[in-house]
Please model this.
Amino acid sequence: MKAVQVTGYGDVDKLEVVTQAIPEPKEGEVLIKVKACAINNTEIWMREGAYGTGSKSGWKPEGVQFPRTPGSDITGIVVKTGDSVDQSMMGKNVVLFPFTSSGENGFEHISEDMSFIGSEYDGGYAQYVVWPAHLCYDMPLSDYIESAVFTVSGLTAWHMVEQIQVQPGETIMVTGANGGVGSLNIQIASKVFGAEVIAIVGDLDLEEKMKELGAAHVLSYKSKNLADEIIRVNEGPIDSVLDVVGDALFSTSLQVLKKGGKFCTSGSAGGQKTELDFRTLYLKHITLYGSVLGTTEEFERMLHAISEGKIKPVIDRTFPLEKAGEAQVYFKKSGKLGKVVLLPEE
Ligand SMILES: NC(=O)c1ccc[n+]([C@@H]2O[C@H](COP(=O)([O-])OP(=O)(O)OC[C@H]3O[C@@H](n4cnc5c(N)ncnc54)[C@H](OP(=O)(O)O)[C@@H]3O)[C@@H](O)[C@H]2O)c1
Model:
């Protein structure tokens, strides 16, 4: 089969198109013919070694075992089953839950042994992938590409919204609102949980699209008076922030949060380190939440909301699998709207 592997930490030239044997499903696993694999920043940081806070590393401090096939947001069809897998799995169109974990229900995402597809296991930048049968779910939509774009961004967004217990009518600021996670944070917070969303983008030409996703107000991070604008459109300080940007909007976020407000971070696309005046936190009684992915039950709730049409796929563009390097460079570009997807058969 054709696959794209990361051969070591570094730039996109560390991505190599290879031909290799189709993997065999072991006991409890299925073999999936990959139909679509959406890109996430996680595999770019895995290649760059950017998860390491000291030396370079992948998700786990002990680092990535190269060569590694990246890619976590996978849809496809089950074409072979390993021992002890129910034969009814054959021919199913599935979407993969992206990690294994021995954590109990509700704590899978914070278990020490959590291991991620595309980082600790070979992933979906390939024509075939093997995965535990119990982590393969029915696709929420009939289309492979549309069903592939929720896995990591959607699960992360869903978990963030549940973590801060968004209530109907609350005002939530969503940063990185045109990106993979942000475009789902808008939809989940507004259309599933009934919040009033202020979407933060760079380019205000995206305003109409953001409103279609459920944003009540759309503002630009390029504005010199962003904090004032947020307070003006909301007629006062806001309840919570769902953030994926990090440093670039941290001080604005703390400024516009109400007393007792909540700040939830799952990413740092606009800067990984920041300055914090502790007085802002304690004088305003602000709660900080750190967030990575989510639980299988949240994944199931998200798939249900997708199949009901409450949240919709937002797809920027597709690339053929062999152009994975070009696709990763494109992913990093400012101003895209939603997800970038690799297609092994294009
Ligand atoms: N914790 C988790 O489980 C988890 C899961 C998925 C992603 N993440 C992280 O979340 C972050 C976003 O991921 P994504 O997939 O949504 O990425 P993405 O699709 O590339 O979106 C990034 C967003 O951040 C905005 N942004 C970048 N730099 C900015 C700046 N200096 N000021 C304001 N906005 C800025 C971008 O706006 P422009 O388009 O205008 O540049 C864009 O809206 C990444 O750091 C990723 O690693 C974490």
